[in-house]
Amino acid sequence: MHIVRAKRLPEGKKFLLKPAKELETRLLPPFALYENDELVMYCGILSASTNPLKKIIKEMDFMKAERSTGLKYESRCFGYYPAMGARNFHACRELVVPGIEALYEIGNRAYYTFASEFTQECAANRKRIDDGGIKNAYRIGGTTFASGIVNKNSALNYHYDRNNLRKSYNMMLVMRKGCTGGNLSLPEFGATVEVEDRTLFIFRARENIHGVTPMKIAKGGYRISIVYFTAERMKKCRAAKKEFKNARDIMDRSTRKKVGIN
Ligand SMILES: [Fe+2]
Question: Are the C-beta atoms of residues 103 and 56 closer than 8 Å to each other?
């Protein structure tokens, strides 16, 4: 594996929210990018087959959305998510999609690729999640990730994954066919990672600016990324029984108020 030691360029920050660019330095998997002996990113090719997943994703209903910047994207969430009172979800819960077991299984396999090659970083990451009080019940299989999102054909402007637990790693698996562009760009390191089918990333996405470069998709082609992460707000998720009781109390109070019963 190629080891890359790099120093962060402070001017990289000026790219934030702008469209991602193909930068001059090209990084090809497998590599590990370090800054001051800290692992910023591991990138490799997953050895396991992704064929069962491709079928599931082909049938998946994606949610279309548009960001305030006008950027359109399609995605679908799965796994454990915190309560969202504004949307009337008052308990931490599991978002289930068809074929979720396959998404969990490939997540487990990919995670163990990381765990076996980066024992120290993996242990430190697990400690961070444990210390954060994120319960085992809200973790995907044997991993430390609570949640996932599948992105379809989405070029993403430069951003931080601000919802992630501080200094935690997330994991991303890309499947692609008939796609040009769609690379992962890291402006603070002046580099773009050339992404091929089954490219796997372990990445501190909260602390490092990243973006997906514009892409061209041929007929019948696709670029899918499956991102596994642990959100800071998962710290608030209590045992399921408490979550359900709390949600029921909130709903009960609001219903009684509506019908005028104290
Ligand atoms: Fe991201």
Answer: yes
CATH number at residue 22: 3.60.130.30
Instruction: Decide if 8 is inside a domain.
Output: no
Number of domains in the chain: 1
- How many A from CA of 142 to the centre of ligand 1? 23
Task: Tell me, yes or no, if the pTM score tops 0.90.
Answer: yes
Distance 159 CA to ligand 1 centre (A): 6
Does residue 242 form part of some domain?
Answer: no
Residue 4 lies in a domain: no
Question: How far is ligand 1, taken at its centre, from the CA of residue 71, in Å?
Answer: 14
239 in a domain, yes or no?
Answer: no
* Ligand 1 centroid, distance to 204 Cα (angstroms): 10
**Distance from the CA of 184 to the center of ligand 1, in angstroms?**
10
Per-residue pLDDT of the chain (262 residues; tens, 9 = 90+): 899 999 999 898 999 999 999 999 999 999 999 999 999 999 999 998 999 899 899 999 999 988 766 677 899 999 999 888 767 777 899 999 999 999 999 999 999 988 999 999 999 999 999 999 999 999 999 899 999 999 999 999 999 999 999 999 999 999 999 999 999 999 999 999 999 999 999 999 999 999 999 999 999 999 999 999 999 999 999 888 887 887 788 887 878 888 888 7
- Give every CB contact of residue 210 below 8 A, 6+ residues apart in sequence: 20, 158, 159, 160, 184, 185, 186, 203
